Amino acid sequence: MQDARLSAVKTLLNINQKGAYSNLEIRRMLSRRFLKGADQAFFVTLVYGTLQNQMRLDWIIDSFAKNPRRVNARTREILRVSIYQLLFLDRVPDYAVLDCAGRMAAALTPGTKGFINAVLRNVLRHPEIIDPARLADKDEAFRLTYSVPKDVQSLYEHAYGKQKGRRVLEKVNAAPPLSLRVNLLKTSKEDLASKLEGDGFSVKMGTVCDAALFVSGGGSTEGGIEETTGFKQGLFTVQDEGAMIVSEAIGAKPGERVLDMCAAPGGKTTHLAERMENTGEIIACDIHDSRLSLIDSAAKRLGHSIIHTKKCDGTSSDVLKLGQFDRILIDAPCSGFGVIRRKPEIKYQKVDERASALIDIQMRLLKNGLALLNRGGTLVYATCTVHPEENENLVRKTLNAAGEAATICDMTYTDPLIEDMDCFFISRIQKG
User: Fold this and answer.
1) Cβ-based neighbours of 328, under 8 Å, separated by 6 or more
2) Is the dihedral of CA 35, 38, 40, 46 positive or negative?
3) Any catalytic annotation for residue 384?
């Protein structure tokens, strides 16, 4: 377990100090394969759990540190990981947490062992101090309890309403379930569920999307499930159910010509191929060869032959050379505030700065998409954010400026309170 804790601290330092992405850093660390079995799952729990609760953990550290600004980054990270275990992980004995914290201090930041030990012992001695509920300002208590900055709270309350927005924020401050999209061209939900149960997983049927399954147990991390025979045979894809709803919203039918303008890594592209019964044509675009290869690999594994990848920038006029399409999916690059449970570090970044850097790109993608759409065709513009300037405001503004005869059929957010899915914005547009 010591290696898992030390690996978690080093990973968190890369995320918080060097700007690394949590999901990629976790994959990189696991790929080195010096963590085995339960240590892998423990490491993942520590990284995500500490990130998800970072505001609250820092508030606790600062409550006991005489001069919080003098707590260096390595010391703070050791404290964050250790306090997270003390507060949130019942199965870890307190003495083991303190012992490992001392050994990590000796390895990473010599001379701080006494300070770290004192803070951790104070956390154990004074539960009344570390409870945000003691604060008179109940809004501040809510934000600290769920580690939600005020501007992120405002985004969710705008998208879902004040009361529901808070319930959603409570939901997304926890680890997401592991959901799979069954490749119904190769197997059925029932047969795949039986196969996975034989591999030691617990399986629950999804109720919102026809192809969704939820798995747990049996080492059910994304990396673990991708080691199964069923994955290698192309029987399923790891995908959040909210993302499945995006693909379903476009209503693609067999024989149609479909464009996925921002396709990599290919989860929604391959879902479209399955919805189309692998009949018709899908052009899948991205600007990086390495990311296009991910789509090609996924299509090959799943047995899809109608997906044709093309290196193309959807924001440029070159994309207009692709011709006309019956349906178009724009899964636009966005600020990502709808998937903060998968990338918790995002919620501590400045909301408007992340959004403003992308709005021009999003508008150009949508404008070009409208130009490529056949009369009577359907376009879905989607993001994994809850920022209105990237979503409903952008769609209305772009349609008004584009001069195309297009109608907004509906605009909605997926509901994380239903089957624990991510937050996606989906706008369905029809060209007259």
Assistant:
1) 250, 258, 259, 260, 261, 369, 372, 373, 377, 378, 379, 380
2) negative
3) yes
Please check whether residue 416 is in contact with residue 168, taking contact to mean a CB–CB distance below 8 angstroms.
yes
3-state secondary structure of 37: coil
Q: What pLDDT, in 10s, does the model give residues 25-74?
A: 998 998 887 788 788 889 999 999 999 999 999 999 999 998 888 899 99
The two structure tokens encoding residue 47: 């990284």
How many residues are recorded in the chain? 432
CA 48 to the chain's CA centroid: 11
- Please report which residue ranges of 161-240 form alpha helices under DSSP H: 162-172, 189-198, 222-225, 229-232
User: In 3-state terms, what secondary structure has residue 380?
Assistant: strand
CATH superfamily of 178-238: Sun protein; domain 3 (3.30.70.1170)
Helices and strands, number each (H, E), in the chain: 19, 11
263-296 pLDDT tens trace: 999 999 999 999 999 999 999 999 999 999 999 9
The radius of gyration computed from the CA coordinates of the chain, to the nearest angstrom, equals: 23
Q: Does domain 241-431 have CATH number 3.40.640.10?
A: no
CATH 1.10.357.10 fits 2-145, yes or no: no
Q: Helices in 19-129 by DSSP H: which ranges?
A: 22-31, 38-52, 54-64, 73-88, 94-108, 113-125
- 189 HSE (CA, 13 A, CB side): 15
412 to each of 227, 243, 380, how far by Cα in Å?
Answer: 35, 13, 11
Q: Which residues of the chain form CATH 1.10.940.10?
A: 2-145
Nearest residue to 169 (alpha-carbon basis) of 146, 151, 196, 140: 146
Catalytic residue among 100, 285, 334, 384: 384
